[in-house]
Amino acid sequence: MKCLRVYSTADGESHFDEVEIPTTSRQVHPNAAAFEVSAKYAASGIRFTHIPAGARQVDWHTVPERVLTVRLDGSAEYQTSDGDERRVPAGSFVLFEDVDGKGHKSLHSPEEQTVLWISLPQGLENP
After folding, report:
1. How many domains does the chain have?
2. pTM (two decimals)
């Protein structure tokens, strides 16, 4: 399973990357198809965020901590300081690790949105 990642380098620039989340096939429910399940990652908190309709563009900003965002509805386009852009539709998740440097820009779809923020102190590298 792949997860889009936004991170910063020592020179303060932000970039996109993909993190591979390893999964294993596991029988979760009797008489049902096996699920692909990852290891359990440590999370220190969870927030529900409501983004009002018309929020549109948020200029350059960083995140206060490593956070995995899960977009429940709406969409956003993100731009990193190296000029790369990605569109993230509803149902997608993004690991933001650009806690310092220039950060990223966000362009939100016009409708209101709900985003789940999961604080991941160690990111997705160490389950």
Report:
1. 1
2. 0.91
